[in-house]
Design brief:
6 helices; about 70% helix
Length: about 100
């Protein structure tokens, strides 16, 4: 009984594919396609959006415990948005990117 109590206390994620469908729908809109053409010189084939939607729909067919495990694994595999550096690493990276500015003086 204690296991069921613990499982009940952990909120289950509700998997929704609506955001993926909306993203795919917007991808085919004239606004998005014209933005892509203006910015990149080519139309978007929306394959990434299709992949995300199909992946989401495939996850819907799995048990909730499997879905939780898959989602946690994917979140751990994502790189963190910030890369932390030591002061020495930061200084060398700064010089690599902006060292030419110091030389102009």
């Amino acid at each position: 009984m204690s296991l069921k109590k613990e499982e009940a206390s952990v909120p289950q994620r509700r998997l929704s594919c609506t955001t993926h469908f909306d993203a795919l729908w917007f991808c085919y809109s004239p606004v998005h396609q014209m933005q892509q053409y203006y910015r990149l010189g080519a139309l978007d084939n929306c394959s990434g959006k299709w992949t995300a939607l199909v992946d989401c729909l495939n996850l819907k067919t799995k048990r909730s415990s499997e879905v939780e495990e898959i989602i946690e694994t994917r979140e751990k595999a994502k790189p963190h948005i910030w890369s932390f550096r030591s002061p020495e690493e930061a200084a060398s990276h700064w010089k690599e990117l902006f060292g030419q500015l110091d030389e102009q003086d």
